[in-house]
Design a protein that fits this description.
This protein has nine helices and 14 strands. It starts with a strand and ends in a 7-residue tail after the last strand. The longest helix has 14 residues. With 293 residues, it is an alpha+beta fold.
Length: 293
């Protein structure tokens, strides 16, 4: 290890949080080591040499967890001088005559020791998956803005008739995200009857839809979107659209968005350049069932 201080963690404790690590390191000084502790909650019994049981007080007894924080060079010295027979680094530190402080540990920071512990740990990593289907369509008319995937097309003579900026690709994605999370649809979340959404950027709606969804514990696994439009040609704009949409998503969601463009093949309203239709298939996951079930 390098650096002035070191965190020592037991790999058998896979659920330690970043918050616990931060709290340990915030208390470490050049002289004091720090360990996480939890008070013993179980009733204790002591067995004597004949096998007879008697109650034992749990007052003042604590379970020691990891990670434990120390001044690196002093810890190396303590382990070299007093490490033999010590059950953890904190014990070697104390045996070397150095002061030890504590922060409160975490009940979820369990140690995987027995075979049945693996089943409990696996259960904590199980994820719930939900799929949402998004759809949006807006008619085209002269004198309107054409914004798709957050990217303006200023040279295209037609644009979307809509209350907001009319971006059907983003609206379809919002619809899929909200639907997968059980939060209704874009028309319910951002009604056209509300004037505060008039001409609003659909990128804001996507950012807010993702925020609402992430706040309920859901993460984006993948979103696959289809744009059906005769014109304008979209192939050279797909990367820019993807980048613009990714930029407003939560950081862990980014890079999980895919966009395809299809021609209307001269058929129906899209083929006559009267409208643009967009679909989105969105998969979300959560470590546990979330609200909206």
């Amino acid at each position: 290890a390098r650096g002035e201080y070191a965190l020592v963690h037991d790999g058998a404790r896979p659920f330690a949080t970043a918050d616990l690590c931060s709290r340990v390191m915030a208390r470490v000084t050049g002289e004091e080591g720090v360990v996480p502790l939890l008070p013993v909650q179980d009733a204790l019994k002591k067995k004597d040499g004949s096998g007879r049981l008697s109650p034992s007080s749990r007052d003042g007894l604590y379970i020691t967890q990891t990670p434990q924080g120390f001044h690196r060079d002093l810890l190396i010295s303590a382990l070299s001088d007093r490490g033999r027979g010590s059950r953890d680094e904190g014990e070697a530190w104390v045996n070397a005559g150095r002061p030890l402080e504590s922060v409160r540990g975490e009940a979820g920071n369990v140690k995987i020791t027995w075979p049945e512990d693996f089943r409990l740990a696996e259960a904590r990593f199980q994820r719930t998956f939900r799929t949402g289907l998004g759809y949006d369509v807006h008619p085209l008319a002269p004198g309107r803005r054409f914004i798709l995937g957050g990217i303006p097309f200023p040279d295209f003579p037609l644009g979307f008739i809509a209350h907001s900026d009319g971006d059907p690709l983003i609206h379809a994605l919002c619809d899929g995200v909200l639907g997968a999370a059980g939060l209704g649809d874009i028309g319910t979340a951002y009604p056209a009857s509300d004037e505060k959404y008039r001409d609003i950027s659909s990128l804001f709606l996507l950012e807010d839809s993702a925020r609402r969804t992430a706040a309920r514990g859901w993460a984006l696994e993948w979103a696959d979107c289809v744009v059906i439009a005769q014109r304008p040609k979209l192939a050279d704009k797909l990367e820019a659209m993807t980048s613009a949409m990714n930029a407003v998503l939560p950081l862990p969601w980014r890079g999980r968005l895919h966009i395809k463009a299809k021609s209307g093949e001269g058929e129906g309203a899209p083929g006559r350049c009267e409208t643009v239709i967009c679909h989105a298939a969105v998969t979300l996951s959560a470590v546990r069932p979330c609200g909206g079930d």
